[in-house]
Design goal:
By secondary structure, this protein is α/β, with parallel strands linked by helices. 34% of the residues lie in helices and 22% in strands. Strand 6, helix 7 and strand 7 form a beta-alpha-beta unit.
C-alpha cells in the first residue's frame, strides 16, 4: 500500500523545482522502464503491478520494489492510461566533457521537440547534447516519453553555450538559421557542434557571432519554417550520413 506521503512526493516530481531539490525523476511505462533497467541510471524505487512483476523477473537489484494495485498506480502516474510500472530514478551527474561531435540547443522550450532531438542524437550516434540554462528540462516526463528511451543513452548537459564555444574554438560550429548556406553544399563531418535555436526566436545573436558556419535547409514549398526536431534530423542526415 502506498501512503499519502509517498503519493504526494511522487506527484511533486512532475515539477522541475522538486526534481532538482530531491535529485529524482519519474520514468513510466513498460518500454521506458525496460530501457532504464538496461542503462547505467540508478533506480531508487520501482512501483509495479503484479502482472508486470511476474512477467519481468528482476533477479539482482539494489533498489526497492513495491507491488501496487492498478488504482494505486493510477494515483501516482502522470499518464492518461497508467502502464503497469513506474520508477523513481536518481538524476545523473552529467558534466561537460570534451567531445568532438555534439548538438547544442539554445533555448529550446518544447518537451516533445527536446525528446525527439535526444532520439535523433541517439540514432546518429551523437553522445552529447549541450542545453542552454533556459532549455526545457531533459528529465521532464514528456521529454522522456518522446525520447523513446534514448534519454538513458545520451549525456545531456546544461551549460553556458557561449562559454562552451569559447572553450573549444577549434571545433567547427554549424548554426541552423534561415539565412544560412544550403546544408547540401557542406561536406560530411566527423566533428562539430550542430546548433539549434528556440522554436520562435532562433539562436541568440551572441552565439551566432561565434559560429563558423551558418547553415539552412532550402524549402521547396511554401512552409515558413520547419519544426526544430525535424530540422535537426535533416541536418544530421545531410552532415553525418
Amino acid at each position: 500500500m502506498i501512503t499519502k506521503a509517498q503519493v504526494k512526493h511522487i506527484q511533486s516530481l512532475d515539477d522541475k523545482k522538486y526534481r532538482s531539490t530531491h535529485q529524482l525523476f519519474v520514468v513510466e511505462g513498460t518500454k521506458m522502464v525496460n530501457e532504464l533497467l538496461n542503462s547505467k541510471f540508478k533506480i531508487k524505487t520501482l512501483y509495479a503491478v503484479s502482472d508486470w512483476l511476474n512477467t519481468n523477473q528482476i533477479d539482482s537489484h539494489d533498489f526497492e520494489i513495491v507491488e501496487v494495485e492498478d488504482f494505486e498506480l493510477a494515483r501516482i502516474s502522470s499518464l492518461k492510461t497508467p502502464n503497469q510500472v513506474l520508477a523513481i530514478v536518481h538524476l545523473p551527474n552529467n558534466s561537460t566533457q570534451s567531445t568532438r561531435l555534439a548538438i547544442l540547443l539554445d533555448g529550446l522550450q518544447d518537451p516533445g521537440n527536446l525528446g525527439s532531438i535526444i532520439r535523433i542524437a541517439d540514432w546518429y550516434h551523437i553522445s552529447t547534447i549541450y542545453c542552454s540554462e533556459n532549455c526545457a528540462d531533459a528529465y521532464n516526463s514528456k521529454v522522456i516519453q518522446a525520447s523513446m528511451g534514448s534519454v538513458f543513452r545520451i549525456n545531456i548537459v546544461k551549460c553556458d553555450l557561449l562559454s562552451l564555444l569559447e572553450t573549444y574554438p577549434d571545433i567547427p560550429s554549424y548554426a541552423c538559421v534561415l539565412d544560412g548556406k544550403d546544408i547540401n553544399s557542406f561536406p560530411k563531418i566527423q566533428e562539430g557542434f550542430i546548433i539549434i535555436g528556440n522554436e520562435s526566436k532562433g539562436i541568440q545573436d551572441s552565439i551566432i557571432s561565434r559560429v563558423k558556419h551558418k547553415v539552412t535547409i532550402l524549402p521547396k514549398g511554401g512552409a515558413e519554417s520547419l519544426n526544430a526536431a525535424v530540422a535537426t534530423g535533416i541536418i544530421c542526415h545531410c552532415m553525418l550520413s
